Amino acid sequence: MKRRAGGWASWAGRISSWLLLFAAVGVLAAVVVVPRISGSTPYTVLTGSMQPSLPPGELVVMAPADPASIRVGQVAAYQLESGRPAVATHRVAAVRVDGHGERSFVFRGDANSADDPEPVRPEQLRGVLWYHLPLLGHVNLWLTGEQRMLGVGLAAGTLLLYAAVVWIRAARRRLRSRSPA
């Protein structure tokens, strides 16, 4: 059997291309696929109010949660104003129940010395922290919804093209090894 030229460099190139492929698929799954399938929402941390645990540029994925299950110490996202898209991601500092049995939440950023000014009503909650990824929030800010979908399509197409090239190369090698020299 004939040994291929290149040896070590060829082997290292294959390993690094597979690692790069797996990393790209993992990031794509964590940022787009998993949140979409689970009904979660990715947000970008914009300020230093949650440092050091969630620095600016961090991508946080918030999973839907029943307000009755939210406890002190959990990180959650809430609308700053009911019905508006702007959210804050802070830690629950207190859970209050008024005389009518209505719950409200007091939030505070880890780096802040005071609680957020207004109590948060259950309908303002957008979810609790499920997982977070460093620096990927910057990418999330740069991409609009349309660009994100285009990026997913391009990534999927690139991965399919890569798979086709690998498959064709392997088929050619098999054919060459079978044919007489």
TrEMBL record:
Q: What is this protein called?
A: Signal peptidase I
Q: Record's GO cellular component, any one?
A: membrane
The opening ranks of the lineage are: Bacteria, Bacillati, Actinomycetota, Actinomycetes, Micrococcales
The Gene Ontology biological process annotation of the record reads:
signal peptide processing
Q: Which UniProt keywords apply?
A: Hydrolase, Membrane, Transmembrane, Transmembrane helix
Against InterPro entries, the record matches this protein to: Peptidase_S26, Peptidase_S26B
Q: Does the keyword RNA-binding apply?
A: no
Chain ranges passing through the membrane: 149-168
The molecular function GO annotations come to: serine-type endopeptidase activity; signal peptidase activity
Instruction: Report the EC number(s), separated by commas if there are several.
Output: 3.4.21.89
